[in-house]
Design a protein that fits this description.
370 residues; seven-stranded antiparallel beta sheet; two-stranded antiparallel ribbon
Length: 370
Amino acid sequence: MKNLGLIIAISIVCSSNVTWAQTIDSENKQSGVFESPGAIRKPIDGAYEKHITPNNKPVPLQPINEEYVMYATLIWRVIDLKEKFNLPLYFPTEPKGNWKSLSQTVWDAVDSSENNPMPVRIYSTEYFDVPLSNEEFRGKFSIEPRIQQIWLTDEFGMQVFDEETGEPISIGDTTIMQYADPKDIMQYDIKEQYFVDNQRSMLDVRILGICPILLKGGTDMLEDMGFSEEEAAPPAAAEDEFFEDEFADELTDEFADDEFAAEPKEEYQAPEELPEMSPQKLAPIGWLYYPEFRPVMAKTEVFNAHNNAQRRTYDDIFLQRHFSSFIRAEENVYDNREIFFYIVNGLDQILEAERIKNKIFAFEQEMWEY
């Protein structure tokens, strides 16, 4: 009997709970409020969560004692992102999780925001003496404003031309501000130092600074920003002028005498000085001190076409020197002048850069006796 009473009591309690739950569900449906189930875990982009790269630290380098340095020289290199070997440094154009381009990594590390309260300092010179403010850094991405004419149109949206001259009627102009994007960074300047460490008996190289180079101006830049060549050029002339020029010979009198025929038109001669197109300019953004930038580079992964599970970081790329570059200058007594200052021909500039590289290689080989 006791067990029977206990079973009856339990059944009454369960039925009351079910009735209470159904009452709450009916109230929620009437009010339109539904309780969403709690997330099991934070969404991740993949079958597993990555802990190695986000918590990665740069590999410590061998400390150098000045007493053991018997030779040293400064070299400036240029990394051109248009080369196929350097494409992993340029892509992706838009961030995809932790996979970001080197230019976007520089922007996120230098730009001061709520998510980045301690930005990496960027300097105006390659000697890392004058740091840039956040406003000055953003101002580096501004392009010269573009002035666009505003043409008179009718109620149907067609352009209105002057009846006498046949030229389109302008009602004014407007100034369009233009700003570059991190994907417009197409080169990097690298300042590095080669030295001979007598303690380890080897020739070593250390990168001192990185400078992103922005591509400014030119038609390609306008197209990337949504301005086509047709929008940049003035509208076409009236159709009447085209009609007169195209069919002028057909409208002449067929019975006109050859002696009184109109004189032939002179051939068009291009003027001596044509207006120059706005060239594409390479503008340096600023210099990042490489030891300060390494912790950020060590936490940003680079695409690996051979194995997606073993992606390297930008610190690995530069530490292993897995990039293509050419020498721009070597330190010299002439104010560290660049190669193109004393060599004009492009082929000779390449040969001069190879000569400097072979000189360093030969110095390393001559250190040993066989």
